[in-house]
Amino acid sequence: MKKKAPTIQDVADKAGLSKAAVSRYLNKSIRLPQDTGRKIDEAVEALGYRRNLLARRLSKGGSETLGLVVPEISNPFFSEMAEAVEQTASERGYNLILGISRNHPEKELGFLRWIDDSIVDGLLFVTNRPDNRRLQLEIRRYDEVVILDEDIPGTTQDKVFCHNVEGAYDATRHLIETGHRLIFHVTGPASLMSVQERLEGFRLAHRQAGLACPDSHVFHHDYTQQFGREVVREILARPARPDAVFAASDYIAIGMLEELRRHDVRVPDDMSIVGFDDTALADLVTPKLTTIRQDAAELGRIGTGRLLDTLARRDKPRDIIRIATALVIRDSVSHR
Question: 6, 135, 307, 334: which is deepest, by most CB within 10 A?
Fold first, then answer.
C-alpha cells in the first residue's frame, strides 16, 4: 500500500505548533524566533513534507505559470523560441507549460482555456495556419495573450514579429547582385501576414532591378519540409529552370535541398537557394544554407517581457514590435 504523504498538520504536530503558524512560516508571510523556525524546518526534513506549490499559488491569486503555444517543437525555430521564453520566465519567477497545437484549431482553442482554468496566468501564442475568424473572435476575449511570429488578423493584443519585407528584400537583392535573373519564390499559405510581407519584399527587389516577377514564379502551400520536396518536382518539370529560389522558411529550403540532391541538381552550381529564419539546421545541412536571420530567441524574450508587463499592469497600452532581420551568407548561393 502506498504510504500517505505527510500533511502540513503532521508538520505542525511534530513541531508542537499551530497549523496556521506553520503555514504562514512556510509561505514566508511571518517571521518567527530562530528556534521556532528551526523546529519547523527539522519537522519538514524528518517527515519529507513537500508543499503543494500549485495550491499555494492559486491561493495567492495566480499560478505563477505562463503557457507557450506553438505549432510544433521539431522545427528548431520554435524550440529556440521556447528555450528563450522559459529562461526569461524563470528569471522573473514564473514556470512555463508548453502546448503543441500541430495547427489543429480545436487544440489552439483548448489551450486558451488554460487561462480560464487558472492553469496559466497568460499565454504566448504562435500559429502559422490561416484563420477563418474563429480563433480571432476567441482570442480577443483575453488580455493575457501575446501573439508571436505570425499575425492573427483582427486581434488587438501585443504582437512581436520580424521585419518580413526587409528580410525578403535583402534575400532577393542578394540573389540579383550575385547575377541571378530567373528567381522563383516558394512560400506558405497566401493569406498569412508573413507570406504576404515576404512576397512584397521579393517583388520590390525585382521591380527595383527591372526584372519581371510573374505569379507563375511564386509557389504557395505550407511552411513544411514536405512542401519543399514536392515543389522541387514541380519546378524541375518546368521547361525553364530558375537560376535561384528564395524559400520563405529554412524548413522549406531544407526540404528542397534534399529533393534537389535526389535529382542530381547541384546547389549552388546548378541552382542557388536562400532560406528565411536561420535556424540551427541552416549551418548543419550541405551546402550550408544562406538565409535571412530572424532571432527566434529574441522574439521569445521580448514577447515574454511584454506578457509579464501586461500581467503586472492590465491597462498597459498594446503595441506591435518588430525585430530586425539580417542576411547570413553561407554556401548555397553561387556567383553567376
Answer: 307
CA atoms of 163 and 333, how far apart (whole Å): 22
pLDDT at residue 52, as a whole number:
62
The grid coordinates listed for 208 are: 527595383
Strands 272-277 and 290-294: parallel
Q: How far apart are CA 213 and CA 205, in angstroms?
A: 10
Global confidence as pTM: 0.82
Give buried/exposed letters for 298-330 (b at 16+ CB in 10 A, else e): bbbbbbbbbbbebbeeeeeeeeebeeebeebeb
* DSSP 8-state code for residue 93: T
Task: Give the strand order in the sheet containing 272-277.
Answer: 218-220, 183-187, 244-247, 272-277, 290-294, 325-328
C-alpha 174/C-alpha 163 separation (Å) is: 17
Q: Is the dihedral of CA 75, 229, 232, 289 positive or negative?
A: positive
Structural domains for the chain = 8-51 (1.10.260.40), 65-162+296-321 (3.40.50.2300), 164-295 (3.40.50.2300)
Determine the pLDDT at residue 184: 98
The answer to whether 101 and 116 have CB atoms below 8 angstroms apart is no
Distance in angstroms (rounded) separating the CA atoms of residues 148 and 161: 6
